[in-house]
Input
Amino acid sequence: MTVTEDLGVRGVVLVCGPGAPDFPAVDGLRTEVVPARPGKAEVDPLLPDAGHLVVAGTDADLAAVVLRLLRKDRLGGTTVGFVPLGGESEVAGLWSLPSDPAHAFRLAVRGDVDPVPLIRDDAGGVLLGRGEVAPVQGVGYCDDQVALRGRARSIVVTPDTEGGAGLVVQVTKGVLFRRPVTFYGRAFQLGCIPAVPVSDGVPYPREMKRWTWYRHTEDLRLVRGLA
Output
């Protein structure tokens, strides 16, 4: 069943930030323009009427909207379509979404829901595409596996696209070891010399000594399949 059949095409298109293309009108969907990385004041008033959300913007914009769904306990009742704008999108690459805005919009409105892992962090945020800490020195665990003990050029965390426990961790060590070592699990925990984690292209406001990314108990109902 497609999103449009399931919900009667009832919801909201959130266009995040200036300079977005004009999308065609769709019966049952209203369009709202909101700032980049919209917050509580911009998103929350739109959620009660939104059985389906289409977010047009960057990965960071999508993460900001999904965070509001999480905070308002609306994940289970809201389907989410994504139209990537503003350059390369890790989210689109992970879930094979079209890069062309017109094609992406058609899929976001007319496609099938296929839930994907939602990754959270212990500072209250969410991760939908790519998380990174680089460089880093410390100890990291992916579930009960030691993923890092010492230095690394980078640690990259993404949702697991293969139906595994939830997330994928890639640890790239020194210059002589360019190929990352990959771990799969439900959670990644890091204790380190203070470093700045970056989630969906947005650096955390301060250095952290501890950081955790983990799979949420509820998936994101992402529209990504062809109707």
